[in-house]
Design brief:
By secondary structure, this protein is α/β, with parallel strands linked by helices. The protein contains 6 helices and 5 strands; from the N terminus they run βαβααβαβαβα. It has a single domain, classed as HUPs (Rossmann fold, 3-Layer(aba) Sandwich), CATH 3.40.50. The protein has a 5-stranded parallel β-sheet with strand order 3-2-1-4-5, with helices on both faces.
Length: 144
């Protein structure tokens, strides 16, 4: 069985998220999704609109997802969760700002160089991102 790991914030689920998770699932047999911890979202992006537990529940309810878990808080390493999940593949979204070479180096340093890094195909629809959706809602509100 090939185990795939996908990661993300998943704040305000949208079609781009579904596409990412479908693509990730197609890489293997079992998909585990790590939903970013609220404190990590605050530190790296913005105040989350929905809580980590609600985001975990919603992502876990999506058809491609076998298991959804909340990730570590920012004071812990993002790699600490890997032994628990034991993935064969880490699937990165086409727009995730992760440097693949840096991840490979970190995995090698941890003795986890057997984990493959794969970037999935993009999804190009008008509202394929949370910030685009929020901007569109504001635009529609302001047009009234």
């Amino acid at each position: 069985m090939k185990r795939v790991l996908a990661v993300g914030v998943f704040d305000l689920l949208h079609a781009g998220h579904l596409h990412y998770l479908e693509q990730a699932k197609s890489l293997g047999d079992h998909l585990t999704v790590v939903v970013a911890h609220d404190d990590t979202v605050r530190q790296r992006k913005h105040e989350p609109v929905t809580s980590q537990e609600l985001r975990r529940r919603m992502v876990g309810g999506m058809k491609p997802v076998d298991v959804a878990v909340v990730g570590n808080p920012p004071e812990k390493s993002i790699y600490d969760i890997l032994p628990e999940i034991n993935p064969d593949i880490i699937a990165l979204g086409f727009d995730q700002e992760h440097a693949e070479d840096g991840i490979r180096r970190s995995l090698a340093e941890l003795g986890l160089s057997h984990i493959e890094i794969r970037r999935v195909e993009g999804f190009t629809e008008d509202l394929d991102g949370t910030r685009k959706i929020i901007a569109r809602i504001i635009e529609l509100r302001d047009a009234e």
